[in-house]
Every structure is written in C-alpha cells, then in structure tokens.
Specification:
Length: 215
C-alpha cells in the first residue's frame, strides 16, 4: 500500500486499531467501503464446511475480528453458541442491525489487549485475516491472545494469507504472515491438525486454512 493511501486510512503503527473504527463508521449494512466484506461467510470457510460438517450443538464458538458478522451467523446455524467480537464498535453495531434476531453475542473487544475472562473458553475459535490486519510488531501478542481462547481439545481455525518475503511494517496493510506462524501457535501449546494451502491468494504467495487443537 502506498504512503498516500496509508495516510488517507490513518494507518499508524502506534495506534493500530484506530482506522478500523473510521472505516466501519463510514459504511452501512451493505458493507460498502469495507474492502474485505464478503457479505457471506468467507468462501474458504464455506468450502471447508461442505467437506467437514461441524456439529456445534452444546459447544461454544468465538469469532475473532468478526467484521460484518457472516462467519458468526454460519457458526450459529451449525448449532454453536457464538460470541463474536471486533475492535470497531461500528462493526458491532452493523452486525446487530444486519442480524437483529440472532442469538450471536456480538461485542466490542480488543484482541491486542486480550480478554482474560475468555481464557480456554471456546470449543471452536475462528480467526480470518485479523492477525495480518495489524503491524508485525504485535504478532507475538496476537498469537498468544488467540491461542488463549481455545479450550482443551478445542479447535482453532486460522485463515490467513502467507508471503515468502519477511513481514515488515513498510509493506501493508495487510501485513501478510510468514509460514513460521504455524510454529508460533505450536509454541503456545496448540497442536497442528491440518494445513490446506491454496495457490490462488489475493495478495501473497498462498492462502492457508490451518487447524490447531488446544491442549
Ligand atoms: C481484514 S478484516 C477481516 C474481517 C473478517 N474476519 C472477515 O474475514 O471478513 C480484520 C478485522 O479485524 C478487526 N480488528 C482489527 N484489530 C482488531 C483488534 N485489535 N481486536 C479485534 N478486532 C480487530 C477489524 O476491525 C476488522 O474487522
């Protein structure tokens, strides 16, 4: 992303959360102006579900950086009791407007700060493109905080773009991950269950759909 666009969006390494509120506050239920809004569950998540049907009955799911909310609704439809959070209050308001009758608990929350009350609380945690939306210097904290949510024997699904070049603040957003994110999650006590790669990335070299298991 060039410097002009970064300025327009208000990208600031020291205040990495702020531009998301600006962006969602300018949008509406149509998702216009939200570049990542599919207005449907993420296509890779949907395709995966067709092959690996999940039964969420009696289980709790968490959606990290839920954006416009569609992935959370997909999990609700599978029977999970779902919590979904985003740092942008305006995103949460849009989710509530779009899905007024949902049982999903849409709440504002900051992954960088971490949410201690949710430690090991969720049987299924879904993280799509949130870690890569924040500058590389926050990576260790974000990976720790996402890992913290996963219950023992629970599952974490990470969908992320991966680049071979080393992540640097100068190139982004998004700051696509390096393949070593897998080992970094493993270092937090999670075990790798599966890693599916597609060679049709939007920006990087690959898109990964990776599943980890909590210990
Ligand atoms: C690239 S978007 C992806 C949104 C959604 N997961 C999707 O796939 O459509 C990243 C999302 O993470 C949210 N986000 C950024 N920083 C966050 C933080 N510190 N805590 C929680 N959410 C955050 C943004 O507001 C945005 O909705």
């Amino acid at each position: 992303m060039n410097e002009d666009l970064r300025k327009q969006l208000g990208i600031n390494e020291g205040k990495p959360n702020d531009w998301f509120e600006t962006l969602y506050s300018r949008s509406d239920e149509s998702g216009e102006g939200v570049p990542w809004a599919n207005m449907a569950p993420h296509p890779l998540f949907s395709s995966w579900l067709k092959v690996h049907p999940l039964n969420g009955n009696g289980k709790k799911a968490l959606v990290v950086g839920c954006g416009m909310g569609d992935d959370a609704i997909a999990l609700e439809n599978l029977g999970f009791k779902v919590t979904a959070f985003d740092v942008a209050e305006s995103a949460i308001e849009l989710c509530k407007k779009r899905f007024p009758n949902t049982t999903v608990n849409f709440v504002q929350g900051d992954l960088l700060a971490g949410i201690p009350g949710w430690k090991h609380q969720f049987d299924f945690v879904l993280e799509i493109f949130t870690i890569q939306a924040l500058p590389p210097k926050y990576e260790a904290k974000l990976i720790q905080h996402v890992s913290d949510f996963v219950a023992p024997q629970g599952e974490l699904m990470v969908i992320t773009e991966v680049q071979k070049a080393k992540r640097t603040y100068d190139v982004g957003p998004p700051w696509l991950l390096n393949e070593d994110y897998v080992a970094k999650f493993e270092n937090k006590g999670l075990s790798l269950k599966s890693l599916d790669k597609t060679n049709e990335p939007e920006m990087g070299d690959e898109i990964h759909l990776t599943i980890f298991e909590g210990s």
